Amino acid sequence: MKSLAKYQEAFMHYLEEQNYDQEPAGLYQPIDYILKLGGKRLRPILVLLAAESFGGNLKNALPASLAVEIFHNFSLVHDDIMDKAPLRRGKATIHQKWNVNTGILSGDAMLIMAYQKLHDYPSNQAKALHQLFSQTAIQICEGQQYDVEFESRNLVTEKEYLQMIEYKTAVLVACALQMGAIIANASIENQAKIYEFGRLLGIAFQLQDDYLDTFGNPETFGKQIGGDILENKKTQLYIQAQHLASEKDRDQLQGLFKVDTYNPDEKIRKVKAIFEQTGAEKATKNTIASYTQQATEVLNSIEMQDKSKAYLVEFSKWLMTRNV
């Protein structure tokens, strides 16, 4: 997305200015490693874009953008430990490269560092930013707990799943956009609308991420394809398949998710076949498109510069059609 390159470049320059060459090195080296490992930087970009869209100064939004990125990466470090994930963005996860204790402690430090980035804003903005950030942080923890619990349940409803991904993923996208609006002193009404746009877009983002976990390109996705299947995660694909499948296919799918004696490649292949045969793959893609469209409709109701609105529309379209 060339139109957003300006924001990505500004954020990356600010990130490179940060000094993580500190002692103890065992705490700070993993932080430097994960923050500079790559990634799309979508959330900090959205902070910067929202700030400028409402007439704010991009430079003033940089500390908040880094707070969001640090927090996001903190959550990934701990998620990777919980999921026993070997790869993150195509590279070794922190607990694999170092060890689990290092991952836990460095992650804890990142959470604190994220809050520190919000300390120097004017008092009225700092209070609003901290309140929003704290609300978002606890919702993300709630979403992660739901995700863990769903792994051992045979039945997860679509409503439950959508709430889980809203908390685990979408609220941070929404938070990023509203933080930019707060820094720009946007109206309370526009802050609420940009948050809702981000919430809907974040749900679409996570649905697409779950879809790509099963049907993505292993050379470009950056994570193990089929990881959700091997972890018995009840994603939208699974829920739709349960709803659309014949009794035979439903029993087979439940059986595949109950035992871990299958060869991993065979399990992934069989589950993917059920997702395709039942129409769950197509239904999930339709749900992604629906949430993206809802987000666009909210965006159209916001008082914002046309150029900025066009950037966010472009971002939404990219999100719906991305393949990596």
Explain this structure to me?
The chain is mainly alpha-helical. The protein has a single domain, classed as Farnesyl Diphosphate Synthase, CATH 1.10.600. It is built from 16 helices and two strands. It has helices at 5-17, 25-35, 42-53, 58-83, 94-97, 100-116, 123-150, 158-183, 188-215, 218-221, 227-230, 236-244, 247-258, 264-277, 280-300, 306-321, and strands at residues 87-88, 91-92. It has a two-stranded antiparallel sheet. Strand 1 (87-88) and strand 2 (91-92) form a beta hairpin. Helix 3 runs antiparallel to helix 4 (58-83), helix 4 (58-83) runs antiparallel to helix 8 (158-183) and helix 7 (123-150) runs antiparallel to helix 8 (158-183). The longest helix is centred in the middle third of the chain and has 28 residues, at 123-150.
What's the CATH topology label? Farnesyl Diphosphate Synthase
Q: The biggest beta sheet, please? A: 2 strands, antiparallel
Supply the CATH class.
Answer: Mainly Alpha
Which spans have pLDDT < 50 for at least 5 consecutive residues?
A: none
Mean pLDDT: 92
Q: Counting H and I runs of at least 4 residues, what is the number of helices? A: 16
Q: What order do the strands of the largest sheet run in, or round the barrel if closed?
A: 1-2
Helix content: over 70%
Find the structural class using helix and strand composition.
mainly alpha
Number of domains: 1
Please identify which CATH superfamily we are dealing with. Farnesyl Diphosphate Synthase
The succession of helices and strands, N to C, reads HHHHEEHHHHHHHHHHHH
Shape type: globular
CATH architecture: Orthogonal Bundle
User: Kindly, what is the distance between the CA atoms of the first and last residues, rounded to a whole number of angstroms?
Assistant: 14 Å
